[in-house]
Fold each of these.
Amino acid sequence: MTELTKQDLLYKGKAKEMYSTEDPEVVWVHYMDQVTAFNGKKKVQMSGKGAANCNISSLIFKDLTANSIPNHFIEQIDDNNQLVKRVNIIPLETVVRNMASGSFERKFATEHLMKFEKPVVEFFYKSDELDDPFINESQAEALGVATPAQMTTMITIALQVNKRLKNIFLNMNIDLVDFKVEFGIDGTGNLILADEISPDSCRLIDKSTGNSLDKDVFRKGLGELVPVYDEILDRLKTVEA
């Protein structure tokens, strides 16, 4: 598969660039050294950030594949590049929460990091212009964004991912507070996990120190981000070895 080469730019997002390849069903993903927060309002270049996320996401997707969770990952090419299945992205962010934080904590005035008895699953409509508003099943259906059946499948897969990620991070002495995933429809019509899973899309807390090990370090100005991501990668390599 690695004989494929990067061709035309298809899409440039906040953290990744997507390119076509010689295979119409395969996309080349380049992880950039750019970190953003607050829907792109805060943006900085950080050397090594793209490589850390690419390596972390690749290891996690390999684990999910080994555990029969359908996803778009094909292979990692080098530190900053992957090959993935081409999908039509459903414009929803699926958020799974194990503890109260972020918008949930603000909206419901909960205790910080209050643990839930069962994971909470939420959907947000992907729109920078609208600031990614919360969206429910009937709203998504009315807007033609996703069908109820698709959203049920997304919840099922997201909870499978949560179970696997909690186990991985527990072995790294880390609490998985919450995470965001995206889904797409592949060339055969299957709904599969897409995008990335990295400290950009997860909230992670060190069980020993209580320190954030994710993009909150950047959001809240808590210190240097790349060394934190490198620490996650080092721990992940140990448990996935």
Amino acid sequence: MTEQPQPSSRPLYAISVAAELVGLPVPTLRLYEEKGLVTPERTEGGTRRYSDADLARIARVSELVDSGVTLAAVAMVLDLQDDNADLSHRNRGLRRRNTQLQEDNARLRRQHDQP
């Protein structure tokens, strides 16, 4: 399975631009934030700034809502997906570490077995 590039987490878009990009009304983005489904960065003046990662998350929320999933259930789905992504990342690191330890073990055995 090929790993997809991660969207940028750099906050770029004002709420009106973000709404246009995802094809949703501004109040819907505010509702998603109120429900904790997306958390855009805020400028010092309090203006929301959405990143590409936020837009991808909003699109996922919208997809789930369009398929009939309630916002409460969407929150659970997103939490599980976030947990799964975190665990996958940790698993990759552990696999790399395991490979390194196996290589170290093999090297040490070869050194030990040499006369």
Amino acid sequence: MKGKSLLLIMMAGAALCACATRTSRAIVKEEPTLKSVLGDKFLIGVAMNTFQSSGRDTNGVNIVKKHFNAIVAENCMKCQTIHPQEDRYNFRQADEFVKFGEDNGLTVTGHCLIWHSQLAPWFCVDKDGNNVSPEVLK
């Protein structure tokens, strides 16, 4: 008897659930992007690091693509990265950054060539490791 009562209650519950059709449609309002709000008035840019320009930071990449139309390198175009030793150059990260901008239709702005806090160590010393004079740096 208990089994029949339980079965009857379950069937009644299922029937009630089947009758109650409730349709809800979520209204999603698309927020405007920074670059769309500004239109053609001027470029809106952002500094990018190598995790973003290499595609490893996918959340950052998505934000850049959605909201910005210009990019500048955070560190990959600084002297310390591009010219780490007097007789050595490394443009790999800078090239990757520029390619990201070109591939995504972004205006690419370069970095200043000499940045006081991120010079390669060899830049300000002579062959013996002594600091060079201001005249040498000119």
